[in-house]
Write a structure and sequence with these properties.
The chain is mostly beta strands. It has two helices and 16 strands. The protein has three domains: about 60 residues, SH3 type barrels, CATH 2.30.30; about 60 residues, Beta Barrel (OB fold (Dihydrolipoamide Acetyltransferase, E2P)), CATH 2.40.50; about 55 residues, Beta Barrel (OB fold (Dihydrolipoamide Acetyltransferase, E2P)), CATH 2.40.50.140.
Length: about 190
Amino acid sequence: MSQIIVNDLKRGVAFQKDGVPYMVVDITMHTPSARGANMLVKIKARSLLTSNVQDMTFKGGDMVDEPDFERKQGQFLYQNGEEFVFMDLNTYEQYTLNEEQIGDRRPFLMEGLEIVLHIFNGNLVNIELPLVVEQRIVECEPVIKGGTAAAQPKTAVTETGIVIQVPSYMKEGELIKIDTRQKRYISRA
């Protein structure tokens, strides 16, 4: 099993500790002022098995295991109440995750979106979104005259409710590309 240096972990990255897969919810690095003291890496991580959030502290340079997931090509099918239904594109087997497991990734999920399923001991424990998704703007301020010269961003809302800053020349109905890691506008689709 390969390992990851805790200094390289970022929000949304999965790792495994003591046989349990976790997803980084928040991470901070503290450099002590004393000479010779190690940097501390404080991680708030959600267990992908129980959805419980734990605080963990590591020394800079400590190693954690890469999660032992089986990765499968999948697709988001639909939301049924608080459950999200996904399908393995090879076997057509269906899996579900609840709202807590989906977390802040919910606005990126649209029916038919292809994702990567993370299967751990035969159960779906996580999904990996594509780096870029396309969504349509359903609400935004009117086009600002001379907006292309000033390049001032304005607020827009997409079809799934993502509130995002877009260039001032964008208008309702346009299809845009959104970075799923940073939740920001990339370009027109």
